[in-house]
Amino acid sequence: MALIRQVRMVGLIGALVAALALGGAVPAAADYGNSGGNVQLYQVTASMNCNNPSLCPQPLGGFWAWAVFNQNGTFDGEITFCAHMSTPAGPGLAGAGHAHASGNYIVTDIFPGSGPWIIITHEVDVLTGQGRGVTVVNDVPMPIAPAVKGHFSTADILGFSAPGVTFQLTVTPMHT
Question: Phi and psi of 33, rounded to 5°?
């Protein structure tokens, strides 16, 4: 059971970091209001901290993200991440970094009985700090959050909680 939880945690953390920190191919509009026909449908914030080596891959650390999802199928977001430990071979990814993410998404049912989810379908990330100047493109569909108003905890998203693991996700629908 512990191995299943560890695999699930590693997979979800990797998916979330990839989705929120590895971005889409639409230039950022930086239009965070409902102007110019770019109507916001959702704002999503997420934070993850994992300092439990039995559940989290190296390097231990976390990320903090914010994104807006627009009616035209585009999104724009900011991600800050930090690794707290270095490896025996050196500092690796220890320290802080930042990425700007933008791209495309859809809202669809992906899990039976769960209702619609926001799914990033194409993302472009421009990294600063660690990986400064690197642009990463990801076209692998990535579930981000339920497309409903709510605040979701570690147990809500991962199905369990554990010492040294904190995950928080907030979805705010912007349309009425």
Answer: -110, 175
* Cβ-count burial 88-107 (b if 16+ within 10 Å, e if not): eeeeebbeebbbbbbbbbeb
Amino acid at 45: T
CA distance 124 to 99: 10
DSSP 93-128: T-EEEEEEEEEEEEEEE-STTS-EEEEEEEEEEEEE
Per-domain residue ranges of the chain: 2-173
Q: Name every residue whose Cβ is closer than 8 Å to that of residue 14 and which is 6 or more positions away in sequence.
A: 57
pLDDT tens-place string over residues 34-66:
545 678 899 999 999 988 888 887 667 889 999
Q: Give the sign of the dihedral formed by CA 43, CA 11, CA 103, CA 59.
A: positive
